[in-house]
């Protein structure tokens, strides 16, 4: 019996036909405990000794069959197939049922679904195509992806990558290698690695984005710094061309990954589309906090925005960001800030996996954005406002229908300094506690030059004996109540009139050392550094 289908990709017609033939063959005999042994390559049952096949039947293969196997070589790379599935949000694309085209909207959805399926199968065939005849280790796609990985790690230019591909093509004419990096990138971009490159002012003043006037500017409208790198720096990165023919390179670039396509892909697989309803279908009101959907904030949001809560498929996001040095423990000072979104519709064992995280943008270094992070968050906030008001048409593979997907940003996740960066609250003064706001009791430790936060007895019961104890504390009684938790409207009143011009002074205008610490600011206007860009969201 022909068993070559075992090594075929699971999405191929040959594999499906082979499974049917094996089932017919296996069910001729009496089953043991109503089960049969799985014949897939992962389980390793390729010699069917439990189905009356002897070792001698498969030990001898004719030369003709060997040549046929070499000619029909198909590279099976599970990791590459998983990457393709992740890019399209697919687990088993063959099992998806096409939607019926009754209305105009459904016809458009059907056409969109057809185009996505066509692109998926084309990329799957690229993953099966061997690099050259007889090659079983690399497919054409896996070779290009690994070569592209080397390019990114080593900082190779596009021209250098094209020269390498031309050399490989010239040396190995029989290999399926593209002629240029441009051709290779057309295949690689189908894996979902698309992003927008947005030029930024080197001093974090503005993005050259949003309207035609800003996009065409050559200098910053705030600090008048050039948009482009100087000639000396351009030459250092190896850009070709001399004089006026030299290609201009932006001095600083924000890499932004559009959010809408990522959210749409969450519903392309019936399994992940079903998981996106988990927070509503598996809700429990037993007082236990297992998931953010059990929190008071989640429930209050549902009561306030009932139209949003009426469809459990609407996505609730959290934003996390922090800086790190990509050069590890080296002496180079560099801080790069990735911004990651986490969809909380799914169960805890799914939403906290790194595969569920959505990369939103990469804020470049070499210095941290600080208070100017709002400049970089503009594209994301604009897209979040569109997702709240108009939404985006999305196909639900679980219910086999089109619907309008909406999304909301509910939380930010960061450490304490990162919280100050995102919110605008100054975390380096004596009033650093955001919960106490200006109703705090700081004390400066002059020798260590640090702040100490006193007044913890105010959180105790009014009749607690520690409130009257002077000896063991600071020599005073404390009968105050705890500070009041401010509402969102009260916070908005505090930041309403704060006017901030983003950006830092150019290097030539900065002098002297940065002053740390200082005396506690007693006015709320001095404590807030900005009105956060998140206040632009309509919820």
UniProtKB/TrEMBL annotation:
> Transposase-associated domain location, by residue?
3-52
Q: Region annotation Disordered: residue ranges?
A: 504-523
Query: Please, which domain of life does this record's source organism belong to?
Result: Eukaryota
- One Pfam annotation reads Transpos_assoc
**Which InterPro entries would you find in this protein's record?**
Transpos_assoc, Transposase_21
Under which name does UniProt file this protein? Uncharacterized protein LOC101514879
Give the classification, highest ranks.
Answer: Eukaryota, Viridiplantae, Streptophyta, Embryophyta, Tracheophyta
């Amino acid at each position: 019996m022909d068993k070559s289908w075992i090594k075929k990709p699971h999405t191929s017609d040959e594999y499906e036909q082979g499974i049917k033939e094996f089932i017919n063959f296996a069910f001729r005999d009496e089953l043991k405990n109503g089960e049969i042994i799985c014949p897939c390559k992962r389980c390793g049952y390729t010699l069917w000794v439990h189905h009356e096949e002897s070792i001698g039947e498969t030990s001898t293969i004719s030369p003709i069959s060997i040549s046929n196997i070499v000619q029909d070589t198909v590279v099976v790379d599970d990791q590459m197939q998983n990457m393709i599935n992740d890019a399209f949000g697919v687990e088993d694309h063959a099992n998806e049922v096409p939607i019926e085209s009754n209305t105009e909207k459904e016809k458009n959805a059907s056409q969109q679904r057809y185009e996505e399926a066509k692109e998926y199968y084309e990329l799957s065939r690229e993953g099966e195509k061997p690099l050259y005849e007889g090659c079983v280790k690399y497919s054409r796609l896996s070779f290009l992806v690994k070569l592209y990985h080397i390019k990114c790690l080593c900082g190779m230019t596009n021209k250098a990558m094209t020269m390498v591909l031309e050399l490989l093509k010239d040396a190995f004419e029989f290999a399926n290698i593209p002629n240029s990096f441009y051709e290779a990138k057309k295949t690689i971009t189908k894996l979902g690695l698309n992003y927008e490159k947005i030029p930024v002012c080197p001093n974090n003043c503005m993005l050259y984005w949003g309207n035609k006037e800003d996009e065409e500017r050559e200098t910053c409208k705030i600090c008048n710094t050039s948009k482009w790198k100087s000639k000396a720096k351009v030459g250092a990165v190896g850009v070709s061309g001399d004089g006026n023919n030299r290609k201009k390179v932006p001095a600083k670039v924000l890499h932004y990954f559009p959010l809408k396509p990522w959210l749409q892909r969450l519903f392309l697989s019936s399994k992940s589309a079903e998981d996106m309803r988990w927070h509503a279908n598996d809700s429990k009101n037993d007082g236990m906090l297992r998931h953010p959907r059990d929190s008071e904030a989640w429930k209050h949001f549902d009561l306030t925005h009932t139209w949003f809560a009426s469809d459990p498929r609407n996505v609730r996001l959290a934003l996390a960001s922090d800086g790190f040095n990509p050069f590890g423990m080296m002496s180079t000072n560099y801080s790069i800030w990735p911004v990651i979104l986490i969809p909380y519709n799914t169960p805890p064992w799914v939403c906290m996996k790194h595969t569920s995280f959505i990369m939103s943008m990469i804020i470049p270094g070499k210095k941290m954005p600080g208070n100017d992070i709002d400049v970089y968050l503009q594209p994301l906030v604009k897209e979040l406002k569109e997702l709240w008001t108009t939404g985006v048409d999305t196909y639900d593979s679980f219910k086999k229908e089109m619907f309008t997907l909406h999304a909301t940003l509910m939380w930010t996740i960061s450490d304490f300094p990162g919280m100050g960066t995102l919110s605008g609250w100054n975390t380096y003064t004596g009033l650093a506690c955001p919960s106490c706001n200006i109703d705090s009791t700081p004390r400066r430790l002059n020798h260590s030059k640090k702040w100490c936060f006193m007044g913890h007895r105010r959180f105790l019961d009014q009749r607690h004996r520690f409130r009257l104890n002077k000896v063991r504390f600071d020599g005073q009684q404390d009968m105050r109540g705890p500070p009041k938790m401010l509402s969102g409207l009260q916070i908005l009143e505090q930041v309403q009139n704060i006017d901030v011009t983003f950006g830092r002074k150019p290097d030539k205008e900065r002098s002297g050392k940065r002053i740390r610490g200082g005396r506690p600011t007693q006015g709320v206007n001095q404590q807030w550094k900005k009105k956060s860009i998140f206040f632009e969201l309509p919820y």
